[in-house]
Model the fold of this input.
Amino acid sequence: MFSSGQLIFALFFLVAFTIVMIYLYRKDLNLHKVHYKNVSLVILTVFAVIAIFTWITFSMH
Done:
């Protein structure tokens, strides 16, 4: 299926990618707190709207 070199590369890539993403996220954390304050409220609202539409759809049938 995969050679040992491919598996080693995939493992190395996964570890390196994860480390870089964590580093960059922590670097921009203060900026995210300023610009994305109410993201959780938006996500909650989207899920509530989807739930309401689903409830209406199933209640009509």
About this structure: The mean pLDDT is 94. The radius of gyration is 21 Å.
